[in-house]
Structures are given as structure tokens and as C-alpha cells.
Amino acid sequence: MVEPWTSISMRTIGSLEKGLRILEYVATQGSVRLAETAKQFDMSNSNMSIFMNTLVETGLVYKDTENRKYHISTRIRALANAAGNHMTDLIEIHAREEMTALHGKFNENVMLAVLSGSTSHYVARIQSNHLVQIVDDDETSYPLHATANGKVMLAFKDAEFIRTYLESVEWHGFTDKTIASRKELEEELDRIRDNGYALNRGEYEASIMAIAAPIRSDVDIVASLVVQYPTFRHSLDEVKAYAPDLVAAAGRISEKLRSAP
Predict the structure, then answer these.
(1) Looking at domain 83-259, what is its CATH homologous superfamily?
(2) How, if at all, do strands 142-143 and 119-126 pair?
(3) pLDDT tens for residues 164-174?
């Protein structure tokens, strides 16, 4: 028997949907000009002006009259931070048991990373018990293409997010292993999707490697689970053997998130 709701199309408000997509575009770009944004959405300048004026009037976007650019307002940043903090807290709560189990098995740094715009940062960690340890600054933001945690989150984001990142990224060579071109990164993202995990082969710091798996909510990639280690302690092949345990742990965290009230 077909459930009665399966044949009913979801009703939406087209103008609201477009306004939200414009707002998202402003947020991901940092600042935009009206004409460029109109071209991006295949709209006339006059129609785009109506959307922008509405976003400014609601306090979600700020217009800098000197350089004629639009920016995300402090109000929406506060709203995003509040929502992000709630989700981060929820992820940490559900990740603790799995992180502890991985730490007990591998005795290396086990960390939780989240997206922050076009970068990532760590929000939780369990430090290894080895005398020689990797100590990171949790306040540091990392470019997505140069870390395992960033690459695995980028790989499973939507096509628009990936396209925007690829068009705006600076191909800075942190080490001789850092991904240095769009083609190389696209090939790497394909491998990550096939494997279900990402590797950092010394791409941000030559002496540090890592493996990461995605944590997903119902609708999006929300975090990554990471095992990090110094290069002298394990070979890359040894760390690839971590993958089944790491992917399974990230999957269990994802399931807990999906079933959370």
C-alpha cells in the first residue's frame, strides 16, 4: 500500500527559496557586488536589488555604501554561531564514546573537526599517551584541501559548495605534498568518496599525517572524526588499516545524530 503522502509534492515559496540562496551566496563569498550577484543568479540588476534591499531591511545583510558591496551582518553571524554551537555540542556528546574507544585501540590523537566557512577547526580531542605528542592549537583554522578532516568534509558537501571552494581557494604549498591544482583536488575528492575516508599524507605539516571519516546529519556533512599521528610512528599503509574502525565509528555517531530529538 502506498502511503498517502508519497504522491504529494512539497509546496514551496519560490521567492523565499531564491532569497535564501542569495543569502547563502553572500555568506560564502564574504562580500559581493549587486551586478556580479545578479549575473550569478541570472537575474536583472533591478530584480536583484529588490532581494538585496529586503535582506538589508531584515538586518541579515549589511550594505557598505562606500565600496557598494554587501556583507553578512553581525545579526546573522550571531544566529549562525548559536545554531553552530548547538550542533557542535550535540556532535561532541554523541562522539565521546566512539572517540574514547578509538583512542584506546590506537593510542594516537583522536579529534573531532567541524567546518567554519571555507576552513575547518578542531572542537574536541583526546591526546595520545606517547612521550612524543602532536599538540595543536584548537583555535587555528585549516584550509580544507590540506588536511584529512577538511578534505573528507569537502568531498561530501554539495556541488555548489565544492564549486565555490574550487574557484576561490589559494593553492598555497604548505609542504611538497600539498595539493596544488583544481584537477588534483577533484581527483582526490573522487577517491575519498569511493573509499569513504580521507588521508593527509603530510600535506599541511610534513611531520604530521592523519586519517578522517565523515559524520553526517540527515541532510549534510556536519563534522569529521580524525586519527592523527606523527609520520615517524606509522607508515601510510599501517594507517590505512585504521580506516574500517574509523569509518564505522563515524557511522555510529552519524546514526546517533539522526535519531537525536
Answers:
(1) GAF domain (3.30.450.40)
(2) antiparallel
(3) 999 988 898 89
